Amino acid sequence: FIDVYEASTTLTISAPSSVSVGYTFTIRVKLVNNVNNQPIVNAPIIININNTYYTTVYTNVNGEASTMYTPDKPGELTITTVYSGEPGKFKASTTSVKVKVIPPQQVVLDVIGPYDGYALEYYTYIVELKYVNGSIIPINTIVKLTVNTSEYSINIVNGRGSISLVFEKAGTYTLLFRFEGGVYNGITYLGAERSWKTTIYARGVRVEATARYYWVNTTHIWLYIEINVIDTRSGKHVDRGYVEVYVDKYGEYELITRLNVTGLKLVLQGVYDPYEPWFKIIYYDPTGAYASGEEGGSYIEITQPQMITPAPEPSIIPLIIIAI
To answer: What is the C-alpha to C-alpha distance for residues 108 and 192, in angstroms, rounded to an integer?
Structure first.
């Protein structure tokens, strides 16, 4: 009988103390010869997780090996690593570690923003990702926003983000904020949604006009009208849509022209044949941002325009030449 010397070994394992369900973590092992403290190369290491998962890894030139694992339910993992040794050279070695698996974290998606407003104005929505206890989740991610059929992305930094929107026309808008969830800093977060409705009102319009005229003959007048279409919220000229100008024709208004609104004063002049020198000017906005038409209050009637005296025709003075 010959007693063969086998060197003792040390097998170490490293893994996080806790992980979240769905988080893929790394299990690392290292095998060392205790006699000379040198790594043992190409040694098979069995990794056993809760006696339900087994895999074999082989050490590299540094005596190290690793594998990855993704838990699918909460609880506790017992990870055991086994080196069976090598007859005549190395003794067996084993070690184990426990890892706590915590459930995915629920997320509350909180939104701070307006419930109503006016077209063509900026409105800011603040988005916060919170735990159920109300504290902010300090992660960097993206929250998706759908506004009716348009898509936006909101950058979330340390759990907070914001977006400013301009609604182009009046109406009720449904805003759907979506956090798709995922793994951040080793913790799995569930997805969350928040639906928000914002009612946008048409901007008010004030139609201003001054009219002057004189009778050219018994049936026709020369007419001059200055028209201003004013945004009642900003006090500035409206820069979209058009106005229709009507004149009285035996008790009913008849359209005589249409002028595009461009953000400046409008001028209409010409000869027309009304029954009475009464006028109606109506503003329309096909884009839906401004109140439109008579039903929207965007019109003015002029029943007492200023009657003026026409400029006299220049007189002709005959030239008399006297010869001396």
So the answer is: 6
